[in-house]
Design goal:
The structure holds two protein chains of two kinds. Chain A is α+β, with helices and mostly antiparallel strands. Chain A has 23 helices and 24 strands. Among the domains of chain A are: about 50-235, Penicillin-binding protein 2a (Domain 2) (Alpha-Beta Complex); about 310-400 and about 415-450, Beta-lactamase (3-Layer(aba) Sandwich), CATH 3.40.710.10. In chain A, helix 11 packs antiparallel against helix 21 (about 570-585), helix 14 packs across helix 16 and helix 14 (about 315-325) runs antiparallel to helix 20. Chain B is an all-alpha fold. Chain B folds into two domains: about 1-185 and about 325-475, no CATH class; about 190-310, no CATH class. Chain B has helices spanning about 1-10, 15-35, 50-70, 75-95, 115-130, 140-160, 165-170, 175-180, 185-205, 205-225, 230-250, 260-280, 285-310, 315-320, 330-345, 355-360, 370-405, 410-435, 450-470, and strands at about 100, 105-110, 110-115. In chain B, strands 1-2-3 form a three-stranded antiparallel beta sheet, covered by helices on one side. The longest helix of chain B is centred in the C-terminal third of the chain and has 34 residues, at about 370-405. Chain B starts with a helix and ends in a 6-residue tail after the last helix. Classes of the chains: A alpha+beta, B mainly alpha. At the A-B interface, helix 1, helix 2 and helix 3 of A face helix 8, helix 10, helix 15, helix 17 and helix 18 of B.
Chain lengths: ~600, ~475
Amino acid sequence: MNQTRYSNRKIIIGSIFSMILLIYVIKLFTIQVMDSSYKMSAESNVFRKVVDYPARGLVFDRNNKLLVYNESSYDLLVTPNHVEPFDTLDLCEILGVSVESFRKEFQKAEQYARYKESVIFKQITKHRYSHLQEKMYKFPGFDVQKRTARKYEYTGAAHVLGYVREADTAVINHNPYYKAGDYVGVTGIEKSYEEQLRGRKGLKIYVVDVKNRIQGSYKDGCYDTAAIVGENVTSTLDIDLQMYGEKLMQNKVGAIVAIEPATGEILALVSSPGYDPNLLVGSDMSINYPKLERDKFKPMYNRALLAMYPPGSTFKPINALIGLQEGVINVNSSFPCNGGFSIGSHVVKCHHAGSLDLVSAIQHSCNAWFCYEFTKIIGDKKYGRADSAYSNWRRRVQSFGLGKILNSDLSQEKRGIIYSKDYFNRFYGEGHWSAFTIISLSIGQGELSFTPLQIANACATIANRGYYYIPHIVKEIDGGNSIDQRFFEKQDTHIRKEYFDAVIEGMYQVCEMGTGRAARVPGIKVCGKTGTAQNPHGKDHSIFEAFAPMDNPKIAIAVYVENGGFGAQYAAPIAGLMMEKYLTDTITRKDVEIRMCNANLMDANAQMKN
Amino acid sequence: MKQRGANILRSLDWPVFMLYTALVFLGWFNIHAAVFDDKYSSIFDFAARYGKQLVWIGVSYIIIILIMASNYRIYSVLSYFIYGGIIILLMAVLVVGTKTNGARSWFEIGNLKIQPAEFAKFATALALSKFMSAYDFNLNKLRDLIMSASIILLPAGLILLQPDMGSVLVYFSLIFVFYREGMTGMILLLVVLGIAVFVTTLQYELSVVIIGLVIVAGIWHCGMGRSLTETLIAWGIIIVLTTIFWVINHFALNDKFEFHFLIVAASLLLLPVALVYSYMKKNWTAVFVCGGLLLMFVYVFSVDFVFNNVMTDHQQTLIRVFLGLEVDPQGTGYNVEQSKIAIGSGGFAGKGYLQGTQTKYNFVPEQATDFIFCTVGEEWGFLGSTIVIGLFLTLILRIIYLAEKQRSVFSRIYGYCVASILFFHVAINVGMTIGLVPVIGIPLPFFSYGGSSLWSFTILLFIFVRMDASRDELL
């Protein structure tokens, strides 16, 4: 009978059923317990993280004038699956983009996720947005997200303020705070005070359904964080002085740095040519950035911090001070000039007759005097060999903040050039060089290069009679956070105060009766020193350093005009006008002002280069 | 009357009843979780699906009482009439049925929607049991074979016209019934293996398929009436040989051969062993099984070769999509992916009742009906899923156990029909949600939302329970 004959088949059927369901249990174990990727997928399905972008902090100048603020801008978002047929051409016209690029962006969004919202156009201006808003009903599936765009009140100070742009992969990989779509300061204050200005992003976690419709906050918002608005920053900049400096420097290549000696606060920092910071905002940036980058005058290059020039004669007061402190000369030391200083057949030329003392040597910028003095410094017996004396001299020079990173709060800075003794030992052989070998250093030429910021700072050091505070561009940060402690630490040169009096007297005479008369400001005692940086590629660069008033100085300044010839030609009058503007807020010498503003050295420069 | 009622209660198979009750209510909780919405917080809201399901469950218990109170003989007597009635309904639905999702499978009477295909299962089971339990029925007679196959193919064909592919496939599960009643095991084996090997070859690495075949061959060997010891020895030989080959291959041949070749080689060496052994025992089963295994290897390599080297990309894609293997984010592939995400995210112990986000926020399609197992997986985790599968398996094995105890051939065959149909539904439905089986839209018995499906499974099961309760009276 069937029953007995086939009844063992119940075991086979039962085994098949059991085996198959056992395989299911194993499979369940692998996907539920072993594999965690499904949990991640589930989270990305359900959570929509909405970033709450805080407004960036504002920037004010030292007189509380608003420099940088935020303007509303708008990002266009799209959820491809919610899009219905619409007038593409109309939308493209409103946005000011080509249909082609629109299609491309739209396809990208579609590929990213059909049910998720993604940004397809960023930083739509307020103006375009007002048009778009009226017609939004015609474009279902599109949405607008409000962001902010930086807006710069003045057309200048671009190098000081810097700019922001979308964080690229390098930034994102380097700092976990930044995600795609965030903005980050790239140069200037925007960069160095990025952490204060940016505030903190907030995050809201929503739970969404399959159609990406928000179903509510995740766990009643207990994992949400609120956005914290960026802190406002008060700059040390005097925007009026800054803009005046830029006006004076128009059509000229060069830089101006003005510092308040008592505090190290930077009053003006001009790099010419500059650019309007508003060019690098929002969607215009992609058009303007390459243009600026291609410009042969390199408007984005911050000459005040990065360009290194030989200091020329502006370096002479420093050498005088070192000589005095080292005791190799005194305030009454005289050296003969007689038209130059000879080393063998080589003559460092000069044009004075008879002997000069320290004050007149500075006043007349006597090369021979400083050559003699330098041979005394480097030949100083108490250091033994020349290289030891040189090292000591170098240390003294660096105590003025020259040839070293000042560590200011400006994002970029060049060290400058002042070689260590090893360089000369390698170059000439140990013990085979002396003051005569490196005599150019006595007059600020040769193996010596400093940035305008360093020269302005050195000038402030002289104005302070022996110390400086690290130059800085920000005074105050809102929210009670002080600027860095280092800006309150006195940097001392350890040169006795009375030595400065003689040197400053010489610098005063420069502006009264010497090479720097063009910098004279009526009613104010101005001290300065002209300089000419030798330029092997063309006409020499005109340099002037100055501070005023002589007693209780309020401003120290360095002016560089490339291819401007002698210091007296352009740099000195510009420095004079700047100081007058800052100290009196009026300009008495209108003719000089007009002449300086109208001077155009860029065309000549361009012709020369061609 | 009273006495008979008491008898029924005593002879009712309580394990089956308890398993049924457990599954129905677990299903109801999961439907509640699947369609849960903060807006309708009451579990007794009759506008919501879980409220309705509660009503269907209530009706099911009334159906159970009615069936238990009925005379067990009527099912045997009325089987052809019930079958005939259902065939008429299946024809009628093709004419007057409501079209939903492209299939004409529902009668709509007022608010009530009835799916005759669901009820065709127990009717066909009854008719098949009646026919096969006939005194002179013999599966080896061509006429009987054709007749019994026709009983299945008639409703299957009518359902195919709706068309409802999932419900059609259910009827093929009855092959287990034929097997139990004497159909040669070869056919079952070839059909099951042919399909399984084809699908798994395309889905898994060859080594997995080969190992699977070795396991199946061993079980088959037992099924041919040989002892388990022989199977274990054969498996042992293959394992030892494979290990030796692996060591040689790995250390001496720099992994020149892929792993599945090593198992194939080991199986080849097993053949002479089987030959000698069989000659000594004068029983050629071992050689037969071993040869069959090698033939299956040839089949696997052919499938693999033909699929990868003969078919064009387009043909491959067609087959993959049909098998649900092709990831097609907007189509069935997407559903399976979302279903796997929901189940996979449940972890070991699950997210907890009503805490499943994937099902709650509709990432899973058809979550109260065909994909109800996702809710189980997500909210109750591996533990809950295993318990549910375990409950189903226990129920099915219990039915087989009871079927074997029947004195009447009719009720035994019917019992096997019930077990096969339930198993097929569970295997296809759960397999589909975890991506092991192509997406075939059939409900999970007792779990999925829907009156027709719940009632038809209740009727299917409890007719058998009723027969079983009277198994002693039948002599």
